[in-house]
Amino acid sequence: MDNINIGLGFRRELTEAFLTGEVNPDFIEVAPENWIDIGGYWEHVFNKITDEKPLILHGLSLSIGSPEDIDLNFLKKIKKMIEDYNVNIYSEHLSFAKFNNAHLYDLLPLPFRYDAVKHIVDRINRVQDFLKMQITLENVSYYTTVEPEMTESEFINEIVKHSGCGLLLDVNNVYVNSVNHGYNMHEFINSMPLDSVRYIHMAGHKKISEDFIIDTHGEPVIGEVFDLFDYTLNKMKTNVPVLLERDFNFPEINELNEELASLRKIAKKHVAHELFI
User: Fold this and answer.
1) Which residues of the chain, if any, have pLDDT below 50?
2) Domains of the chain by range and CATH?
3) Sequential DSSP letters for 7-35
4) Could you give the CA distance from residue 217 to residue 31 in angstroms, rounded to a whole number?
5) What is the pLDDT of residues 61-94, one digit of tens each?
6) From residue 7, how far is each of 31, 104, 118 by CA, in Å?
7) Cα–Cα distance between 118 and 102 in angstroms, integer?
């Protein structure tokens, strides 16, 4: 491990904090759908911030699991944004979010099945060929399974292996799914293709009951998720960027900075571990 890169999602509510330097992450992440074809004041703000910070795109609309054709007009806009802003990582969700161009405004689970693997790998390859770059897919939180033929980890491994895509490892989603579906979160991390991880997401969630959690991105990261993050970094051979996701219900800026500092502290420990063992 060499450099430590701790990022924060850029949201309009945080504009002043970004412009004044009250928050100073190493990189930013945005949903491209919120910024494509933007103009006026917000284009000026976006350009100013991206002039100062490396940008990762984390999309919402690709819907890699959809049965319909890939939206090439949308991908053309993504490709232009990648080129215009010198983007090295374009990530999306390993999910289903659209049918017949009707956006469902949710990230629905895919069936953990061999025919789904084949379908998704084909679509990933077409997207990568069009963009002329690797794409990165996130393990998502889900609340039901659909006729599974394999485990979630087997499903993810098959897709990464056969498509060559990167993995966006969302540690909070692993924790959420482990509680909701009763599996061992450490064994899940052990089973992931960690050499293919391009970056990591950390976020908060809402606990509904002892055995049911909703992934919200609107709460602080809890201690157990920080612990799982620590465990994950200990299993990885290389350093990757880490993003703090906060989409709404924003706390005081000092609280955001404390969360960023906690991520940095854990990451630094693993840099030291690798350098001096």
Assistant:
1) 1-2, 275-277
2) 6-276 (3.20.20.150)
3) EEE--GGGHHHHHHTSS--SEEEE-GGGT
4) 14
5) 899 988 888 999 999 999 999 999 999 999 999 9
6) 14, 28, 33
7) 23
